[in-house]
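Schema walkthrough. Field components (list of strings):
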Amino acid sequence: DAKTTQPDSMESTEGETVHLPCSHATISGNEYIYWYRQVPLQGPEYVTHGLQQNTTNSMAFLAIASDRKSSTLILPHVSLRDAAVYHCIRMNNNAGAKLTFGGGTRLTVRP
Amino acid sequence: GGIITQTPKFLIGQEGQKLTLKCQQNFNHDTMYWYRQDSGKGLRLIYYSITENDLQKGDLSEGYDASREKKSSFSLTVTSAQKNEMAVFLCASSATGLQDTQYFGPGTRLLVL
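Field assembly_structure (string):
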């Protein structure tokens, strides 16, 4: 079972940089680390993914530990729109690989 | 960019009724998926399809049928709706090959009376 461990919830204030941790101690060599986020009444939104190297895009920076057993999603200068449940997922690179969401981390952003 | 459209947004059915949900994508992606999400829970894969007319069962296929009529569309049928059932059905698509990032539609919310 491709499990990850994340805190249930985190709080922040607008403008802060948020670090969302994820543990995936048993990750396999062909598994990528994906991050999605979801707000009520909407489908999951892709945030970013990586294999070994840190990655960055317009939404976030993904820092992956050198042993790949953990990763941190870094959200710079969060706004109220960043409030969501963030899911960290392990997934292999085969076509048809299924996503398995756990509970994720509920990020609350205060004005 | 592209978009995934799901219809209807909300679906209210009767117990025992056959209900069909539709999904369209204009990413030109090869692979499409149907997931079910129950309140406060994660996703469970129902069916997926890696190309037109292909169908692969997921973990939750019992009680459902699916049809990949063409590359851009993937339908899901609830063969017999269960009383008091309430869930969100999410359609997703991904390009074939490595790093299959899946992009999701907004979901269809089902309520069975």
